[in-house]
Structures are given as structure tokens and as C-alpha cells.
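Hi all, posting the design record for the shared folder.

TITLE: backbone redesign
STEP: 1 of 1
STRUCTURE INPUT:
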């Protein structure tokens, strides 16, 4: 009887393992099919002109997406300048003063903002900024910053909670105030996890098109000021993919490949930061 139960247990283990592998393969098939299709259609467009020339005019042959790459980097950079300090400070507050009533309110708003559709955030930024300043980099960056803040905040909060209490107690026992302990001891220990959260937030907004379209619109020129719109890779994909011009469709595939490569590069950096160091 005992031997029969052992055989049944081994059989169940093998069946469960096979089901896990089948589920993994089923999940990977659409992912790799998308990556293969984007690479196959986009790699032929990648050349020197693609990285150095701006978007071509309607019906014009050649050109590139240098202005869109510039605009995407500027928009992400400005959004990070807005969101990272706010997100880190919010995460510190939620971690260190999590028992207060204000922290529960802040956490609720954080979760609400994290689950809010990006198009709604874009409409909010449009009503708040674009209606006064006009379609601009500032409005788009503000919308993307709102998407980043809850991600950075949550990552900072969880990273600080993982810092051992004994380290904080040791710093306080040496006469260091609580705020200095948090800023110069706990946050320093958790800096890799915080940096990981920031990079994940950047990867999250890199491919956003809905809030950028609502707040900045399409613009095919170079950066001309924070109160003016600028080209964007995600918008290139959205607009060029449904274009009747073959050159624009090809540039859409190339833009998709570059955007995927950027996000993949960020995720590789995240994995390197989170990898455990060998003793």
C-alpha cells in the first residue's frame, strides 16, 4: 500500500510538472511571435539614416526617427525628474509613518492612481496643463509622471521595509536622529531596490501612447521648448502603422523594434541590479 501511494505521488508530480511546462510554452508562444514579427519587419529599416534623420514628410522616401528618439528621451527624462523625488519621499513616508491616518489616505490614493487607466490620467493632464499652456512636452511629462509616482513609491516603501530593524536601532543608539537614520542608513541600504523600482517605472511609461497623444499630439519636428510638442516613438507606432504609405509603415516597425530594445535594455539592467552578489 505504501509503495502504491509513492507511485501515485510520483505520477502526480510528473503530471503537474508537465502541465507547468505546457503553460509556460503557451505563454511564451505569443510573446516570441510578437518579438519575431517586430524584428523581422523592423530590422530592415535600421540604418544610419534611421538614427540621424527626422520623420519624412507625407509620401517622402527615406528619413528616420531621430527626432522621435530625442523626444521620447526628453519626455521620459522630464517625467522622471518630476516623479522620482515625489515617489521616493512618498515611499519613505509610508514606510516610516505607516501607522498614521494620513498614511492610510496616501496609500489609498497611491493604489487608486496605480490602477487608473492611462488615458484618464492623460485627460487630467490635458485639462490641467494643456488647456492653458497648449500641447507640450510639459503636459505629456506631467501625465507620465503621474503614472510613475505610485510605482516608485511602492518600490521605495517595500525596499525600506526589508531593511533589518537592528540596523536602524544601532544607528539610533549611536545618537543619530530618525530622519538621518532613514535617509543615510536605511535608504542607502535599500538603494538598489529603489533604483530597480525607478527603472521599472521608466519601462512602464516608455511605451505609453494614450496620455502622450492626449497631452502633446503628433509632432514631427525636433525639440523646440518645454511649451511645444515633440515627436515620440510610441506615437510614431500608433500613427504610422495605420498610414497608407509604405515608408511610414516601415518606420513604424522600426520604431517598435527600437522601443522594445529600450525596454528590454532597462529590464536587463533591473535584473543585474537585483541579482545577488556572490560572497
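Okay, here is what came back for every position:
SEQUENCE:
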Amino acid at each position: 500500500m505504501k509503495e502504491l501511494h509513492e507511485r501515485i505521488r510520483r505520477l502526480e508530480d510528473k503530471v503537474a510538472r508537465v502541465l507547468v511546462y505546457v503553460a509556460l510554452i503557451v505563454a511564451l508562444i505569443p510573446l516570441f511571435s510578437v518579438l519575431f514579427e517586430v524584428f523581422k519587419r523592423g530590422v530592415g529599416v535600421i540604418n544610419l539614416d534611421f538614427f540621424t534623420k527626422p520623420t519624412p514628410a507625407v509620401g517622402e522616401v527615406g528619413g528616420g526617427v531621430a527626432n522621435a528618439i530625442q523626444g521620447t528621451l526628453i519626455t521620459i527624462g522630464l517625467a522622471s525628474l518630476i516623479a522620482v523625488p515625489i515617489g521616493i519621499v512618498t515611499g519613505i513616508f509610508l514606510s516610516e509613518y505607516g501607522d498614521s491616518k494620513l498614511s492610510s489616505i496616501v496609500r489609498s490614493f497611491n493604489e487608486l492612481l496605480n490602477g487608473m487607466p492611462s488615458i484618464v490620467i492623460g485627460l487630467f493632464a490635458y485639462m490641467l496643463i494643456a488647456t492653458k499652456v497648449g500641447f507640450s512636452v510639459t503636459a505629456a511629462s506631467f501625465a507620465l509622471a503621474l503614472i510613475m509616482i505610485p510605482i516608485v513609491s511602492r518600490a521605495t516603501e517595500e525596499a525600506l521595509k526589508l531593511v533589518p530593524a537592528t540596523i536602524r536601532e544601532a544607528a539610533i543608539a549611536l545618537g543619530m536622529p530618525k530622519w538621518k537614520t532613514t535617509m543615510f542608513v536605511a535608504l542607502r541600504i535599500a538603494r538598489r531596490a529603489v533604483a530597480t523600482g525607478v527603472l521599472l517605472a521608466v519601462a512602464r511609461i516608455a511605451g505609453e501612447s494614450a496620455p502622450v497623444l492626449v497631452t502633446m499630439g503628433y509632432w514631427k519636428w525636433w525639440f523646440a521648448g518645454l511649451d511645444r510638442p515633440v515627436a515620440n516613438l510610441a506615437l510614431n507606432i500608433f500613427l504610422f502603422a495605420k498610414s497608407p504609405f509604405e515608408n511610414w509603415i516601415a518606420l513604424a516597425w522600426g520604431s517598435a523594434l527600437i522601443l522594445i530594445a529600450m525596454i528590454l535594455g532597462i529590464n536587463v539592467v533591473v535584473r543585474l541590479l537585483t541579482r545577488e552578489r556572490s560572497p
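COMMENT: The mean pLDDT is 83.
Let me know if anyone wants the other runs.
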